[in-house]
Amino acid sequence: MRWGMTIDLQRCTGCYGCVIACKQEHSTPSGIHFRRMLFEEVGEYPTARRIHAPVQCNHCAEPPCVPVCPTRATYQRDDGLVLVDSGQCIGCGYCMTACPYEHRHYVDYAAGHFDDCVTPHEARGGEAGHDWVAKQDTVVKCTFCEHRLARAKGTALVPGVDREVTPACVNTCPSEAMVFGDLDDPDSHVSRLIRERNGFPLLPEAGTKPSVFYLPADVMLDADT
Amino acid sequence: MTRSTTQAVATAVTPGWTAAPGQYTRWDWRAAANFVGGGTGAGMLLAATLFAPSTASYRVQAGLGLAIVAIGLLCIMAKLGRPARALNIFRHAKGSWMTREGFAMPTLFGCGALSLWQPAIGAMAVIATLSALVFLYCQARILNDAKGIPAWSIAEIVPLIVVTGLAEGAGLAVATTAFVPDVPTAGGIVLLVAALVLRHVAWRRYRAALVRADAPAAALAALAAHARRWLPAGDGLPLLLAFAGVLLGGTAGVVAVAAGGVLAALGGWAFKVTLLTRAGHYRPKSVSLAAGLARARARS
């Protein structure tokens, strides 16, 4: 089993819903976003335009962040998730240099967003229950909502199908641009989409074999050539 | 809500992000100091063990080399988020060059310290020097494994970092002989000249490979600015001074060689500061539909 995701660039409207859902789920400290919106200028005047895509940790099959970590704080699970054990991390930042996607984040400041209080949501570390104070001065990253996937164990719930056990970003997308599932299963929805829509990963030349695939739009403008 | 809070919230909820390559800034001058320390220290130990003109000179050169490595390590310790957990770096010898760098430290410092009290340059000095060279090689491979940053991860960085360290150390080693006082040995000067020539060759190969690899323009610009300032002063002038020193001989010759050695070291240090703090740009990202389609079509 290898968890993965597709993001349909034809459907995505760039509404930031997934970005905010992730922020809500994980209550990440100020300035840290496990999920961001990437903007790119394509073409030249007068046909230049701006395209966008949500980006996050790609939970690569060959993650360059794992071998470099001197403490083994960063590790890869059998289901493909790349996670950080914050209790082992020394905050050296080496993994951040290894990730070509810039999706590892250093927790400089773990207090809340407001000067005078920590909200109850911040205090409990969002729905994911992160202890951000314990994670201060370490490196953190997207977990593919590992805490939600864990709820599926011993139940008939299926990640990517049942909302309770599906990553928050996928659940919230109003245009259903994202699909989550098992990349190792050739009959899974994500595998079929990648196959049928010629899904492509970000920076394939980096050789990391990402688990997040983008589905190209079926209409291509001249500017994007 | 105060004004500062408003600004903080605005910063926190505007995660728009550009495809242009960002610069890695967590590794600052303290990280650069670790690379400076490892390179200079290894070079000094090598020069001291092979070519120190006397045991007294060996003690000065090797002692200074060990101190420089230690200062570099203290600097990087100050940069760690959780320095109290520093011993955790020994947990991943199988994969991480940072762990392997750590494993070179006990023999480097242990044998290096013992060698300072030996009546002659012997086995302790050799073991310490070999450990220092392993330490330096590990540092080069640390950068080589930083796969997100083209200017660091390109294969040509490994020989460049190694010979830069040797040039720095050989330079400072010959410079110390002016203060012992002593006269640099021919071997010490040859090591300096050879390291400088090799550094220049490695630099040219590195720059050419970076251009071929389409490295981020900002990183290339930072390295070009460094080259404009430091190739003449850090490579050319030290070579001239070394040759002048040999021709002049006497006190003037010692001073000329020492000045060349100091410049060679400064050139290497400037390169590492530039590389770590100004050329650490990530790869540009693209989700261009056309590019993605082209890749997908090429694959199918």
Question: What's the structural blueprint in terms of helices and strands?
Answer:
The complex is a heterodimer of chains A (225) and B (300).
Chain A: E1 3-8, H1 17-26, E2 36-42, E3 49-55, H2 65-68, E4 74-76, E5 82-84, H3 94-98, E6 105-106, H4 120-123, E7 139-140, H5 146-150, H6 168-172, E8 178-182, H7 189-196, E9 212-215
Parallel strand pairs in A: 1-9
Antiparallel strand pairs in A: 1-8, 2-3, 4-5, 6-7
Chain B: H1 3-12, E1 16-18, H2 29-51, H3 55-79, H4 97-103, H5 105-115, H6 123-144, H7 150-153, H8 157-176, H9 186-212, H10 217-248, H11 250-277, H12 289-299
Any overview of this molecule?
The complex is a heterodimer of chains A (225) and B (300). By secondary structure, chain A is an alpha+beta fold. Chain A has helices at 17-26, 65-68, 94-98, 120-123, 146-150, 168-172, 189-196; strands spanning 3-8, 36-42, 49-55, 74-76, 82-84, 105-106, 139-140, 178-182, 212-215. Chain A has one domain (3-217): Alpha-Beta Plaits. In chain A, the strands form 4 sheets. A 3-stranded mixed β-sheet of chain A has the order 8-1-9. Chain A has a two-stranded antiparallel ribbon with strand order 2-3. A two-stranded antiparallel ribbon of chain A has the order 4-5. The model of chain A is unreliable at 221-225 (pLDDT under 50). By secondary structure, chain B is mainly alpha-helical. Chain B has one domain (25-281): Formate dehydrogenase/DMSO reductase fold. Classes of the chains: A alpha+beta (225), B mainly alpha (300). Chains A and B meet through helix 1, strand 2, strand 3, helix 2 and helix 3 of A and helix 1, strand 1, helix 4 and helix 12 of B.
